Amino acid sequence: MAIPNMQIPSRQLFIDGEWREPVKKNRLPVINPATEEIIGYIPAATAEDVDIAVKAARRAHGRNGWGSTTGAQRAKFLRAIAAKVLEKRPELATLETIDNGKPWFEAASDIDDVVACFEYYADLAEALDSKNKTEVKLHLDSFKTHVYKEPLGVVGLITPWNYPLLMTTWKVAPALAAGCAAVLKPSELASITSLELGEICREVGLPPGALNILTGLGHEAGSPLVSHPDVDKIAFTGSGPTGIKIMTAAAQLVKPVTLELGGKSPIVVFDDIPNIDIAVEWTLFGCFWTNGQICSATSRLIIQDTIASQFLDRLLEWTKNIKISDPLEEDCKLGPVISRGQYEKVLKLISTAKNEGATILYGGERPQHLKKGYYIQPTIITDVDTSMEIWKEEVFGPVLCVKTFKTEEEAIELANDTKYGLGAAILSKDLDRCERFTKAFQSGIVWINCSQPCFWQPPWGGKKRSGFGRELGEWSLENYLNIKQVTQYVSDEPWAFYKSPSKL
Ligand SMILES: NC(=O)C1=CN([C@@H]2O[C@H](COP(=O)(O)OP(=O)(O)OC[C@H]3O[C@@H](n4cnc5c(N)ncnc54)[C@H](O)[C@@H]3O)[C@@H](O)[C@H]2O)C=CC1
Ligand SMILES: NCCCC(=O)O
Ligand code: NA
């Protein structure tokens, strides 16, 4: 299919169903990571805009507002949004690619997931109508108790840059499905498609204030959103340090948060794999998809020593075959990382690995044929020690580090040797062994004979320093619901706890 050429639309903040200039009129440059050029500007919100947006959300959520709609009514809007996103798929994919740097076909596939997600939460919104009041059986006949599931209220959604519109959707779709009014703060490194979601909501007539979109810097727009007293909850995906800042600020207001943070996930490969090429490809995909910028990347390869040499030889051949190019080119399989900051961070982690004694088996530098753009070769690092930074720290770039093992116990120990706990993969023909590893992995996600496939129905999230809470599936809807208990005294008899005074 022809990849459309696109200019960045000029947008303002999306507040109360319309485009509004920031109070301080600030704007931020949009940089295409493949060319390092400024290709547009986005509005930069500050605390004043956050307050205006939160007030709009509270009005929208208020009595007879979005929060009082039925799930069926909300489902209509979510399906209309899905249909509009599908209609604009090629344009949205191009905007995603020139803003984020991911290959166009990956961006287009993300847009397909966005459509599916909105449709999925439309179904869940509809189903909520018959599930939002359920009786709880008691041991006493004198009382009747029900549980109501009602919208939590006004929610703050703060998203990262690695899957811009998809991570926005993972939060906006369930929040709207639950009947919450939302204030979204996308990453300043890739905000374009989230702003286009605002235009789509405007076109489908989403009630004003149900979704507000504030682009801007984390400390100027994100931080005031977290600390705003009239925001009932924060859902965040991003780095560990920022997650800690958000949790600390929210704690001052006893404000609930869900944190989807980083990872340093393992992929354990045994010598009984039936097909080495299939195993090698999953190992590549698990670390180099999305230009290596996946929170759940299986960036630590733990390979059985009996197959290590043969496996690494084959891994090298596959890696050399990865097409690194402008992400708008057909069959590009690796584009640039998101920004100069990320480019320098990844190269620094690689040079530290070298200085600490590891071997750069392949890559580690800018590809020779790409003089501009934040491109880094797919990199494989061996002779890694568990004391090294490259073993311990999330790179968030196309860098795979490798260690070997002899026994299952050693493999499990290496796999869990991380402060994170997001994903873990095991490749082996022995499904009993895979079951043992599934139980032993300290993670929220386990892949068996694959790595990274991600669907909108099952729960997504981790433990340890990867954060807490679950997104996707029914789990994400629960994030945005208040569970209310209602207990009614149905007896005609007096409660008779106190001695009654003399009869009147
Ligand atoms: N787990 C994941 O999915 C992601 C992990 N990362 C990791 O984080 C590192 C830094 O990347 P960044 O984009 O700077 O991530 P970040 O965590 O700083 O930013 C993520 C989001 O949080 C916002 N934010 C930043 N500071 C904030 C604050 N004080 N209060 C409220 N919101 C705030 C940002 O504007 C953005 O929307 C990356 O190198 C990578 O290692 C980054 C993006 C996604
Ligand atoms: N495949 C989606 C992973 C989500 C994330 O990297 O944040
Ligand atoms: Na960008």
UniProtKB/TrEMBL annotation:
Gene Ontology terms for molecular function: aminobutyraldehyde dehydrogenase (NAD+) activity
Record-linked CDD domains: ALDH_F10_BADH (cd07110)
Domain Aldehyde dehydrogenase, chain residue ranges per copy: 19-486
Pfam families from the UniProt entry: Aldedh (PF00171)
GO biological process: cellular detoxification of aldehyde
Keywords per UniProt: NAD, Oxidoreductase
Transmembrane segments annotated in the record for this chain: none
Protein origin, superkingdom: Eukaryota
Statement: the UniProt record of this protein carries the keyword Ubl conjugation: no
Listed InterPro entries: Ald_DH/histidinol_DH (IPR016161), Ald_DH_C (IPR016163), Ald_DH_CS_CYS (IPR016160), Ald_DH_CS_GLU (IPR029510), Ald_DH_N (IPR016162), Aldehyde_DH_dom (IPR015590)
Catalytic residues, chain numbering: E260
The protein's annotated pathway: Amine and polyamine biosynthesis; betaine biosynthesis via choline pathway; betaine from betaine aldehyde: step 1/1
Record carries keyword Oxidoreductase: yes
Self-association and partners: Forms homodimers.
PANTHER family the record matches: AMINOALDEHYDE DEHYDROGENASE 2, BETAINE ALDEHYDE DEHYDROGENASE
Family as reported in the entry's similarity comment: Belongs to the aldehyde dehydrogenase family.
Protein name: BADH1 protein
Organism: Nicotiana tabacum (Common tobacco)
Lineage of origin: Eukaryota, Viridiplantae, Streptophyta, Embryophyta, Tracheophyta
